């Protein structure tokens, strides 16, 4: 394969330019004084190559669970090119052809929802949702129902408002004070629930949310925001009965149910959206990452007609949703999203995720027979986690340093996996797997094989 690193005239110059001028996300730069930053240059399917020519298999879809259809999709690139040459941008106060077309196609996948509001990141999509909630509170509830509930260990983005709704303390550290009106509810990880686990845990975990609602006052709560499956907080699949009870509680107290599908959306869990695994009907759904698989920036805040209609009042000069996202008007996003969705449909990638997910989970569970440090394996579709522990008896988490050493060992083997890290004090101990939805059994065997070897070398 004639890869880009072979065509780069001076890779050393690129590395030094990066070292001198680029401020990387989520990265301590002190080590770059003595080691080179890693620069990725090309991808095809699940494989990516760095500037030094090393090939890797990517088990985390671009590092942050984004490239759902894999790398090198020429038809998406062509769709973006064609649309931006014809009309690259128009502010979202008016429409565009790809914006209208993708909204229609998206709504077809989401029965019960009717409206799509475009922006350009998951953080922004969530902020839009909460602004809607706050404006509904002001316009229809006298400002009372303005509080937003969020769950411990969930993550909703990186802005200050999103961190205010962030259930990962180490991600929030040093960024306060935070916005008022955000209230935490307990997580639903049965594996770390101790004596509270067992039969009926799902309903009890949901009832713990209602306890918070009753303490705060139902007439003060505007919405409950949850990930369908907690992602970076440890791949936490809510237990049986949880989601049904959550929806019942929200309806009982007239609280909008906001599902954050930024990670789980567009096939990741084996259905188009994670909430569809549970037969519930949200009022607001937000999404980003897999919407265009990283080929262009796009996010969506999708609502029911009930939510939308609360902003239609031309007798109130401030009654409409007074918000804008500049790059929500770029045509590249919905153009890429249209082709991305078409690929998912034509290649049966939602179905492949549903089929390959149990295979990946089964292979990871086989590791439990060989490595006592693998405490639990959990997930849905091509979204799986393996929680590492020092003791299966006590569920004591394996130290984060060892978990990260497992990740580093896999990387040295040419396999890129993820792990919860620097998020939840004492509980950054879950290996994370979210390969592209094109993954085959051979791909998954290679990924799990690397983890097997790493666990043997690092943990023993």
UniProtKB/TrEMBL annotation:
GO terms for molecular function: pyridoxal phosphate binding; taurine-pyruvate aminotransferase activity. Keywords: Aminotransferase, Pyridoxal phosphate, Pyruvate, Transferase. Its cofactor is pyridoxal 5'-phosphate. It comes from the Bacteria. CDD domains: OAT_like. The keyword DNA-binding does not apply. The keyword Amino-acid biosynthesis does not apply. Its EC number is 2.6.1.77. Belongs to the class-III pyridoxal-phosphate-dependent aminotransferase family. This is Taurine--pyruvate aminotransferase.
């Amino acid at each position: 394969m004639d890869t880009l690193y072979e065509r780069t005239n001076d890779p050393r110059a690129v590395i030094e330019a990066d070292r001198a001028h680029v401020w990387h996300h989520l990265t301590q730069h002190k080590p770059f004084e003595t080691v080179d930053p890693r620069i990725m240059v090309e991808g095809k399917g699940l494989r990516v190559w760095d500037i030094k020519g090393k090939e890797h298999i990517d088990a985390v879809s671009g590092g942050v669970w984004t490239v759902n259809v894999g790398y090198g999709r020429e038809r998406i690139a062509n769709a973006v090119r064609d649309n931006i040459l014809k009309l690259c941008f128009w502010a979202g106060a008016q429409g565009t052809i790809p914006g209208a077309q993708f909204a229609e196609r998206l709504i077809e996948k989401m029965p019960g929802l009717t409206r799509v509001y475009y922006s350009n990141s998951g953080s922004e999509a969530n902020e839009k949702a909460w602004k809607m909630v706050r404006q509904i509170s002001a316009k229809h509830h006298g400002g009372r129902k303005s509080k937003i509930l969020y769950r411990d260990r969930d993550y909703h983005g990186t802005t200050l408002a999103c961190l205010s709704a962030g259930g990962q303390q180490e991600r929030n550290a040093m960024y306060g004070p935070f916005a008022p009106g955000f209230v935490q509810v307990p997580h639903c990880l049965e594996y770390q629930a101790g004596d509270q686990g067992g039969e009926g845990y799902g309903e009890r975990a949901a009832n713990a949310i209602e306890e918070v609602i009753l303490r705060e006052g139902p007439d003060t709560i505007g919405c409950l925001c949850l990930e369908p499956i907690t992602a970076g907080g440890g791949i936490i699949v809510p237990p049986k009965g949880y989601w049904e009870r959550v929806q019942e509680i929200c309806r009982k107290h007239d609280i909008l149910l906001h599902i954050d599908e930024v990670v789980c959306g567009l096939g990741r869990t084996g259905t188009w959206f994670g909430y569809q695994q549970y037969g519930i009907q949200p009022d607001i759904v937000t999404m980003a990452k897999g919407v265009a698989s990283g080929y262009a920036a796009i996010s969506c805040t999708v609502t029911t007609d009930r939510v939308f209609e609360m902003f239609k009042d031309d007798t109130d000069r401030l009654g409409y949703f007074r918000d804008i996202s500049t790059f929500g008007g770029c045509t590249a996003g919905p153009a890429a999203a249209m082709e991305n969705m078409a690929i998912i449909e034509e290649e049966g990638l939602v179905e492949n995720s549903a089929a390959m997910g149990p295979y990946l989970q089964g292979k990871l569970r086989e590791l439990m027979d060989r490595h006592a440090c693998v405490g639990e394996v959990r997930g849905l579709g091509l979204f799986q986690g393996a929680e590492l522990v020092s003791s299966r008896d006590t569920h004591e988490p394996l130290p984060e340093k060892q978990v990260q050493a497992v990740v580093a060992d896999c990387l040295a083997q040419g396999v890129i996996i993820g792990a919860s890290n620097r998020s939840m004090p004492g509980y950054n101990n879950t290996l994370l797997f979210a390969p592209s939805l094109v993954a085959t059994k051979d791909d998954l065997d290679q990924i799990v094989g690397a983890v097997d070897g790493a666990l043997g070398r690092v943990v023993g």
